Amino acid sequence: MQDGFVRNSAGDVNWSDGSLSGTDVKESTKTMGQLRGIFRSQEDWSMIPPEQVVYRVQWIPPVAEGTEGGLIWGNTTIEPGLVGDEYFMTHGHFHQISNRAEFYATVRGTGYLVLMDRDRKTWAEPMSPGSIHYVHAGLAHRAVNCGEDPLRFVACWPSDAGHDYGSIAERGFSLRVVCRDGAPSVIAA
Ligand code: M6P
Ligand code: ZN
Predict the structure, then answer these.
(1) Domain ranges within the chain, ordered by starting residue
(2) For ligand 1, atom 6, which residue shows the shortest CA distance?
């Protein structure tokens, strides 16, 4: 083999859990303390240790974030758990550039992908291993773990999409996923 003709350009995905390895993998962790104001009950939120990990994200940016025309591959692992009757979930965001879409695909676990447009019309798609979810441009998106095991999904989004967390921090989504009699229920917020 001649040098330079064959190489791995991004990294490796372990398809059994979606995890990434390689030199360019970035990682972040979101703790309960960083999710102040996201769950419905401030009182229940305050009873959980702030260092409790709610979810982890890994991603590979083959081009710098913010670059137009590129893509980023990542994954998220949401731990199982409840804040009062509300399942552990991601913060959720709109994209800063409103015409940027995203793919999610579930690897392990069960839950919901909650989607909301700018008029606050909200709906939820069930997530289970193998489910593919197309997040249309302009929709806010949040994943919720309704199972007893970690919810793991992979995602691919444009490198210049950006994360607009402010709108969600201010008003949230207009649906919440809660545990009723031991089963998930999607209710108006
Ligand atoms: C997915 C992608 C990421 C996002 C992550 C966690 O992997 O959508 O861009 O960062 O989920 O979601 P959030 O940013 O809302 O915390
Ligand atoms: Zn996104």
Answers:
(1) 5-188
(2) 90
143 CA to middle of ligand 1, Å? 9
Written out in words, the top-level CATH class of the domain with range 5-188 is: mainly beta
Question: Residue 5's pLDDT is what?
Answer: 84
pLDDT digits (tens, 9 = 90+) for 86-133: 999 999 999 999 999 999 999 999 999 999 999 999 999 999 999 999
Per-residue model confidence (pLDDT) at position 109: 98
Q: Which residues line ligand 1 (CB under 6 A)?
A: 30, 57, 74, 76, 90-93, 102, 155, 157, 163
pTM: 0.96
Task: Count other Cβ atoms within 10 Å, centred on residue 63.
Answer: 13
Please name which of 37, 138, 126, 143 lies closest in space to residue 88, comparing C-alpha atoms: 143
Residue 35: both structure tokens together: 């999710």
Mean pLDDT, range 50-68, rounded to an integer: 97
Closest alpha carbon to 48 in 34, 61, 27: 34
pLDDT at 3: 65
